[in-house]
DNA sequence: CGCGACGTTGATTTGCCTCAACGATTGTGG
DNA sequence: CCACAATCGTTGAGGCAAATCAACGTCGCG
């Protein structure tokens, strides 16, 4: 049932079959319809989510009453609100399925137990965090080093899959621009070619 | 010599005195003059740096030939270029002392050994990464949810120490605005009060 | 069918940058 | 100790990229 997670872990660290079973028995598979939520503002985030199939997004409502997407998670990515988990404060984020999805639910307390029992699992999670942090760094780099137009073009050529699977207004929200702006850039592009 | 690092680790995880010694014997204390570099573009980053005293910054040169600061590290923070470490590619960042500083140098290979030998140390590093990632998330949130003026005001009231220790143009670079812009905001502020 | 969600297009506004010149302060060599 | 340059911050004028506001088109779905 959780083969995909175990396979993913084994790309980075070695775990025995018993350890794999231990991990499997600690998690739950959730089937989510499009637009279903696993976290909403006001609730404390208590789990880490691994995307088996589908696409999740993490977002909040900005001052201007618009959705602000801070993260997407495709297959084999983890997504959660670490801030809420660490501080034990209520989250101000939504985590929502963009498409029909299957995600593995890993409760925070169980994660703590597993990381103590299985050092290799702790290492795996550290490696995932390091990747996530690097991605966040790169994204900030792009925010400060490119114009909005460059950023959109770079994003859509580097992650063409997203343009297929994600509505334009979500891409806009993720990139920190307006949907109108993206529309104009695309109009320009098609004139050139 | 590395008491400060050991104390910091023990705020988050338990380690024995032997483990503490093992860690201490694996690291080196560097004394850096203001403006000294521990990493420059073109070189592969091979270590993690823990700030004992002083202030470090991580930055790169943007397309417009201006410095873009992506991270500061005060006392008790780690700083490095994970991207270069993971990919083993040359870095395109500078890591530089903003003030005279003392940093603890932890070689990547030694870090790998220590994390295998001491699971609690791996856990400590994961916790540090989680904090760093959360901070990066928050920063992106601010970038998309505030005007440049709000962001500067929020930054300077939330981290007043930085305004003492860091020249204005570095704050500007970190916030992604021009030094002139900050100057104007401050002028406005003093008129009001 | 009719409604809502999503995208497009045009006109106007605005927040911040750019360029440029001018202080103030610091540090350095003669 | 002073002259000078370099560094850092301030101020003003003009320009531009993207946001905002608003209207309209189109597709999919209950």
Question: What is the topological layout?
Answer:
The structure is a homodimer of 193-residue chains.
Chain A: H1 3-10, H2 17-26, E1 28-32, E2 37-39, E3 47-53, E4 56-61, E5 67-73, E6 78-79, H3 82-87, E7 94-97, E8 101-107, H4 108-117, H5 119-145, H6 148-158, H7 160-165, H8 168-175, H9 179-192
Helix pairs in contact in A: 4-5, 8-9
Chain A binds a DNA duplex (30 and 30 nucleotides) through residues 147-149, 167-169, 177-184, 186-187.
Task: Walk me through the structure.
2 copies of one chain form a homodimer. The first copy, chain A, folds into 2 domains: 3-145, Jelly Rolls (Sandwich); 146-193. Helices cover 52% and strands 21% of the residues of chain A. Chain A contains 9 helices and 8 strands. Chain A has a 4-stranded antiparallel β-sheet. In chain A, strand 4 (56-61) and strand 5 (67-73) form a beta hairpin. In chain A, helix 8 packs across helix 9. Chain A is globular, with a radius of gyration of 18 Å. The model of chain A has no long low-confidence stretch (mean pLDDT 93). The A-B interface holds A 60, 62-63, 68, 70-71, 82-83, 86, 115, 119, 122-123, 125-126, 129-134, 136-141, 143-146, 176 and B 60, 62-63, 68, 70-71, 82-83, 86, 115, 119, 122-123, 125-126, 129-134, 136-141, 143-146, 176. Chain A binds a DNA duplex (30 and 30 nucleotides) through helix 9.
């Amino acid at each position: 049932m959780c083969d995909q997670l175990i396979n993913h872990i084994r790309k980075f660290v070695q775990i025995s079959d018993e350890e794999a079973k231990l991990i499997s028995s600690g998690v739950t598979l959730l089937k989510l319809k499009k637009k279903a939520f696993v976290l909403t503002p006001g609730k404390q985030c208590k789990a880490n989510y691994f995307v088996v199939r589908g696409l999740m997004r993490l977002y909040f409502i900005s001052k201007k009453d618009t959705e602000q997407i801070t993260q997407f998670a495709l297959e084999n990515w983890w997504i959660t609100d670490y801030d809420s988990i660490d501080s034990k404060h209520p989250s101000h984020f939504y985590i929502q399925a963009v498409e029909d999805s299957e995600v593995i639910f890993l409760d925070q307390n169980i994660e703590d137990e597993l990381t103590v029992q299985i050092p290799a699992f702790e290492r795996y999670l550290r490696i995932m965090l390091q990747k996530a942090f690097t991605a966040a760094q790169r994204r900030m780099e792009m925010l400060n080093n490119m114009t909005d137009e460059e950023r959109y073009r770079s994003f859509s050529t580097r992650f063409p899959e997203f343009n297929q699977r994600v509505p334009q207004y979500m891409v806009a929200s993720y990139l920190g621009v307006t949907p109108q702006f993206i529309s104009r850039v695309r109009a320009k592009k098609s004139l050139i070619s």
